[in-house]
Design brief:
Layout (H helix, E strand, L loop, with lengths): L1 E3 L6 H8 L10 E2 H5 L2 H9 L5 E3 L4 H16 L3 E10 L2 E11 L2 E8 L1 H5 L4 H16 L6 E8 L17 E6 L4 H16 L13 E2 L2 E4 L6 E3 L2 H10 L6 E4 L3 E2 H6 L7 H10 L1
Parallel strand pairs: 1-3, 2-5, 6-7
Antiparallel strand pairs: 4-5, 5-6, 7-8, 9-13, 10-11, 10-12
Length: 274
């Protein structure tokens, strides 16, 4: 991917972003790669030489790298270890930030808003895939924790209206049963190796207002996920409700997908809405 600097960021930032030492090692897939939508992964591979991204949109990566480098230097236990395992004829790798006798910790630089919401499904899946890797390497995963560093935390708001007391928040992550971990990993591999590319789901496209609940009094209520819409219906004591497709906005497609200009799914919707 070509890196542009359309907004005149200092050269130090440009050089730091160009010095990307990330590698998945001798593996077909990384854990984070498997969690990506298959369609995006394939389009990136097909159009790699045409892709570009601006420094402005990548600065946040430096924050995460700085945190990881510092904690790797002072952490205890097995820090930033990359593990490998076989699945469905492919090799998968993942770099665990910290493993202390099966207690897995992953560091995230994120926003207060993200911490205030429910645990992100991708975070839960990522750490359970690390647990799968640990198990495949003959070790017993015992617990999963995300340590979130809130980049926009303000002391003046601490403890008010569910606002975090500290910039650093520890979030326990449910450890799935071994069978569920194994099943999930196999399904992700199958999705990424299938001959026919899967279209991105509403959740993968960060849809807003993708589902509406109709019934009862008042206007239809909009929800981002089918799970949220279903939970709302289940909480109602009376009335008849149903879930229908809403007039969604796809935030990832609009602003954050590197391959949207090459995506037939998005281009078809743009054409129909234009």
């Amino acid at each position: 991917m070509n890196l542009t600097n359309q907004h005149g960021a200092p050269d130090a930032f440009v050089k730091a972003l160009q010095d990307d030492s990330y590698t998945k090692g001798e593996a077909d897939f990384s854990v984070t790669g498997l969690l990506q939508p298959p369609q995006i992964v394939r389009l990136k591979a097909e159009h790699e030489d045409k892709l570009s991204s601006d420094v402005r949109d990548r600065i946040w990566m430096l924050l995460g790298t700085s945190v990881h480098n510092t904690l790797e230097k002072y952490g205890e236990g097995l820090v930033e270890q990359r593990l490998f395992a076989e699945c469905e004829g492919t090799t998968i790798s993942g770099a665990i930030d910290l493993d202390v006798d099966g207690d897995i910790t992953d560091y995230k630089v994120t926003s207060v808003f993200t911490v205030q919401k429910a645990l992100k499904p991708d975070w839960e899946a990522q750490l359970n895939m690390y647990a799968w890797l640990l198990e495949q390497n003959g070790k017993d995963p015992k617990s999963l924790t995300i340590v979130a560093i809130c980049r926009d935390w303000m002391k003046s708001r601490a403890g008010k209206n569910n606002y975090p007391e500290s910039m650093i928040v520890s979030i326990p992550v449910p450890l799935w049963p071994s069978e569920r971990r194994d099943r999930f990993v196999r399904r992700r591999v199958e999705a990424h190796t299938a001959e026919a590319t899967m279209l991105c789901t509403n959740e993968e496209r960060w849809a807003r207002g993708a589902y509406s609940v109709v019934g009862g009094k008042g206007r239809p209520k909009k929800f981002d996920t089918i799970a949220e819409a279903t939970a709302f219906i289940n909480a109602q004591k009376s009335g008849h409700f149903s879930v229908v497709d809403g007039d969604a906005r796809y935030i990832r497609c609009e602003s954050w997908c590197d391959v949207s200009e090459f995506c037939s799914q998005w281009q078809a919707e743009e054409k129909s809405n234009g």
